[in-house]
Amino acid sequence: MAEKPRPVQVLYCAVCTLPAEYCEFGPDFEKCKPWVIQNAPHLYPDLVKADKEAEKTGEKLQGMQISGDQADSTAPAGSVSKQEEVKRLPGGKIKKKEKPEVVVEKVVRNKRKCVTIVKGLDMFGIKLSDASKKLGKKFASGASVVKGPTEKEQIDVQGDILYDIVEFITETWPNVPENAIYFIEDGRKVPAA
User: Fold this and answer.
1) Where do the segments described as Disordered lie (predicted)?
2) What pLDDT digit, counting tens, does each position of 63-83 carry?
């Protein structure tokens, strides 16, 4: 006779209340690290190894910050350098802290109609609803604020205004430098300047 299936036992983090294997993707992994090292060392062997090395050298494991000369291939996957702040994404990808930039992209639909997409104006403190009104008025077209595929708001402007928009943005909002504006051409980010 087959054995009865047993319920899966899940170990939840006492700090962030996520399952322990998802702590690194939680809101504050830095606070979870000591708990994870003590209660679930099998899930993060690199973290345990780094903790033991830190104890040998007499240092306390604080935030897993290491200097640039110590960063090498043996550094744990969750470590960050003091020079740049990175964020760990699901799948082990590392996302660097975003610098403010405006990305302009032209999307062709139905082989002749174009939509110009403007992303990142909000990073410069510009209210997107006001910006869409100004863009629509300047280029005599429809412009609206929509949520993009990454759930960030962007401005969609009807028509091909890809190269005219750079001059308009830098004149209208002087706090947006021209070297912070990029085009997306053939899937690559190209500086507008």
Assistant:
1) 54-91
2) 444 333 334 444 444 444 444
Q: Which domain holds residue 143?
A: 102-191
Two tokens, residue 22:
């998802």
**Polymer length of the chain:** 193
- In this structure, are strands 80-81 and 86-88 parallel, antiparallel, or unpaired? unpaired
CATH number of the domain encompassing residue 135: 3.30.780.10
Answer for the pair 103, 119: CB distance below 8 angstroms, yes or no: yes
- For residue 189, is pLDDT > 50? yes
SS3 39: helix
Task: Check: CB of residue 131 under 8 Å from CB of residue 125.
Answer: no
First to last CA, the chain: 73
Rounded to whole angstroms, the maximal C-alpha distance in the chain is 79
Write down the pTM of the prediction. Answer: 0.50
pLDDT tens, residue by residue, 89-118: 666 566 666 678 888 888 888 878 889 999
Q: Which of 106, 101, 113, 118 is nearest to 181 (CA)?
A: 101
